[in-house]
Amino acid sequence: MRPQKQVKSMRIAIAQDGNQVSEHFGHCESYAIFDVEGSIIYRRDDLPSPGHEPGRLPAFLADHRIDLIIAGGMGPRAVGLFNQNGIEVLLGVSGNVDYVAQDYIAGRLFPGESTCHHGEGEECGGH
Q: pLDDT grade, residue 47 (50/70/90)?
């Protein structure tokens, strides 16, 4: 896989459980929100999860001006909904959220396979 493009000004949301990337975006405790300018993280906030309700999170995070989502896994329908809202999605990521954000900005983050293995139209109720 190729490294990500050069980061400019953006907002990154990383699904988190504790300080680790959550295995499933829709069922995480909260989102670590990173405001980035060039190669500098100038602000980090935690945004509590509003809960898992199909179709709700894409609009919720679009309202918070998120450009990129990073998580361990997410169903294909959810990925499509985020993309329709102009939000890029990187899956198959694990580790400490602060290190993951730094690795993304430095072009060292290489996503893998989603930890959510559901088909089109299936929900991820068991995560």
A: very high
Q: How far apart are CA 116 and CA 78, in angstroms?
A: 11
Name the DSSP class of 25: G
Task: Enter the tokens of residue 13.
Answer: 């949301």
Residues 27-65 as b or e (16 or more Cβ within 10 Å = b): bbebbbbbebeeeebeeeeeeebeebeeeebbebbbeee
Q: How far apart (Å, rounded) are the C-alpha atoms in residues 95 and 81? A: 25
15 touches 71 (CB < 8 A)? yes
Q: pTM of the prediction?
A: 0.84
The continuous run of DSSP H or E covering 48 comes out as strand 40-48
Q: What is the pLDDT of residues 83-111, one digit of tens each?
A: 999 999 999 999 999 999 999 999 999 98
Backbone angles phi, psi at 67, to 5 degrees: -100, -30
CATH number of 10-73+87-105: 3.30.420.130
Provide the residue type at 125 as one letter.
G
Domain ranges of the chain: 10-73+87-105
